Amino acid sequence: SLNFFVGLSEDIMYRGTVFGALRQQPQLITAVGLSSLAFGMLHLVNLGLGQSLPLTAFQVLNASALGALFCAVRLQTNSIWPPIFLHMIWNSYVMLGQAIAETQPGTYIAPASAELDAAAFLLPTILIVITYWVFRSYTRRTGQSLFHHAPTPAMMPPISA
């Protein structure tokens, strides 16, 4: 339930309120970029909780990429609920992975101060590629470019099966 409420509250704030307000910008890419960056920067709070700078920087990058993906899903589905559920699934996956690693005998868990290796940056890259594909699908379906005024929900055509 914690994962649901974290996903719900963060998505209402960043994909609902922040992205919703920024959709009035001349270009949709501005709304996506600023709301995603704000979502990523939220994770800077982990520095104050003792997490290392490299790991926190990775979380900010990863959360920003996820924020863009969640914005793309929000636009594609014309609903806030799919990003909320994706966010819940993502958080559950991360927490489950941590719990399994912590309970396995002999499993080494890197301390929060551990440095990240280059392979860790593959995940944000994959997220960016998926985000590009979702936005491309959105553009083809609606005829709206990321570089033009974002349609409001009332302007969106219904999704047909």
List keywords for this structure.
161 residues
- Tell me, briefly, the overall form: globular
- What Rg is obtained from the alpha carbons, in whole angstroms? 17 Å
Total number of helices: 6
Parts with pLDDT < 50 across at least 5 consecutive residues: 111-115
Cα end-to-end separation: 31 Å
Tally of extended strands?
0
The average pLDDT score comes to 80
Instruction: State the order of secondary-structure elements, H for helix, E for strand.
Output: HHHHHH
SS class:
mainly alpha
What is the helix content? 55-70%
Major β-sheet annotation: none
Strand content: under 5%
Quick description:
This protein is mainly α. Helix content is 67%, strand content 0%.
Structure description:
The protein is mostly helical and 161 residues long. 67% of the residues lie in helices and 0% in strands. It is built from 6 helices and no strands. The longest helix is centred in the middle third of the chain and has 25 residues. The protein is globular and about 55 Å long. About 3% of the residues have low confidence.
